[in-house]
């Protein structure tokens, strides 16, 4: 991996890769895993450097919260110790700066693997968007989700708006964002924001069970199927049927013995 473990630790991340499963832990529990640009750049580096064999990526948070969102000290004159000064919106390249932060989130949709967020306690703002960027969410029953950005005079800009609308629909997404209200685990499950809600003490076990189930299917078929499913919403039935045919042919051809 291009970034050393020491680099990742410095930006508040832990990474463990065991065979086909990568586990990323946000590890600033004393700050409820508040996030900084360095952490988002670290996430992007992890995504770019994961070994090809990885089939499941678990994203979790250490301590009582998944993540309390952006480190609010970023908005203070002092900033966050050790973090570079961020460009002002008045400066050219501000959008490029945000694009660099978004890279920490975008890769979680990659067809190579299934990403699973294990969420306990608060997932606020940038933390909620991180959970939304994962393919699947397993929530502890104490989970509390909140898209707080509009309450702080911001828009959610870390790639969370599309999955939110895709999952809960436009009216509910407007209601959740523009009230910045907190959604508990039971409501999150009703809205489709959680595939599973479990007692907090069972979160790790439930995630491990899910990971084992995801690994039980054929690796190539799983990757091709995720790719297919990801295209479905943007396709007509005819386009999707064509995509299914093409995917099946490519998959089966890839498994033919050399020489046909
Ligand atoms: N940024 C920086 N420090 C934070 C943040 C944050 N987002 N969240 C918590 N902390 C710090 C607290 O200041 C506190 O530090 P201290 O021990 O030095 O006083 C420590 O983490 C623990 O926080 P508590 O508030 O004591 O923990 P509690 O479990 O009671 O509450 C909660 C957790 C609900 C997450 C609360 O800390 C909170 O509301 N944080 C701010 C959330 C927020 O507004 N995030 C921004 C969202 S918008 C976006 O992400 C773009």
Structure description:
This protein has 260 residues and is an alpha/beta fold. The chain folds into two domains: 2-215, 2-enoyl-CoA Hydratase, Chain A, domain 1 (Alpha-Beta Complex), CATH 3.90.226; 219-254, no CATH class. It has ten helices and nine strands. α2 packs across α3, α5 packs across α6 and α9 (219-232) runs antiparallel to α10. Bound molecules: acetyl coenzyme *A. Acetyl coenzyme *A binds next to β5.
Q: What is the CA-CA span between the terminal residues? A: 36 Å
Strands of the biggest beta sheet: in what spatial order?
1-2-3-4-6-9
CATH topology of the largest domain: 2-enoyl-CoA Hydratase, Chain A, domain 1
- Helical content (DSSP H or I, runs of 4+): 40-55%
Question: How is this structure best summarized?
Answer:
This protein has 260 residues and is of the alpha/beta class. Helices cover 42% and strands 16% of the residues. Acetyl coenzyme *A binds next to strand 5.
Q: Any key phrases for this structure?
A:
single chain; 260 residues; alpha/beta; 2-enoyl-CoA Hydratase, Chain A, domain 1; 2 domains; six-stranded mixed sheet; three-stranded mixed sheet; 16% strand; binds acetyl coenzyme *A
What order do the helices and strands come in, and which of them pair?
Blueprint: H1 5-10, E1 13-18, E2 21-26, H2 37-49, E3 56-61, H3 94-106, E4 114-119, E5 122-124, H4 126-133, E6 136-140, E7 144-146, H5 161-168, H6 170-179, E8 182-184, H7 185-191, E9 196-198, H8 203-215, H9 219-232, H10 237-254
Parallel strand pairs: 2-3, 3-4, 4-6, 5-7, 6-9
Antiparallel strand pairs: 1-2, 7-8
Helix pairs in contact: 2-3, 5-6, 9-10
């Amino acid at each position: 991996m291009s970034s050393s473990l020491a680099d990742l630790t410095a930006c508040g991340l832990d990474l463990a890769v065991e065979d086909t499963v990568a586990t990323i832990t946000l590890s600033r529990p004393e700050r409820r895993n508040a996030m900084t640009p360095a952490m988002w750049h670290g996430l992007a580096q992890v995504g770019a450097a994961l070994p090809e064999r990885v089939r499941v990526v678990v994203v979790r948070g250490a301590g009582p919260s998944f993540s309390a969102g952006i480190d609010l000290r970023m908005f203070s004159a002092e900033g966050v110790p050790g973090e570079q000064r961020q460009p002002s919106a008045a400066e050219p390249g501000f959008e490029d700066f945000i694009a660099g932060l978004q890279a920490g989130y975008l890769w979680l949709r990659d067809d190579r693997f299934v990403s699973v967020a294990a969420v306990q306690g608060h997932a606020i703002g940038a933390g909620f968007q991180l959970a939304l960027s994962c393919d699947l969410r397993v929530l502890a029953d104490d989970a509390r989700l909140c898209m707080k950005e509009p309450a702080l005079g911001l828009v959610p800009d870390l790639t969370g708006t599309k999955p939110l609308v895709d999952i809960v629909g436009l009216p509910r997404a407007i209601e959740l964002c523009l009230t910045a209200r907190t959604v508990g685990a039971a409501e999150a499950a009703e809205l489709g924001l959680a595939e599973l809600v479990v007692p907090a003490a069972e979160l790790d076990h439930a995630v491990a069970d899910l990971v084992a189930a995801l690994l039980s299917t054929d690796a190539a078929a799983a990757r091709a199927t995720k790719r297919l499913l990801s295209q479905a919403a943007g396709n007509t039935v005819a386009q999707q049927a064509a995509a299914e045919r093409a995917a099946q042919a490519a998959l089966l051809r890839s498994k033919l013995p050399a020489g046909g």
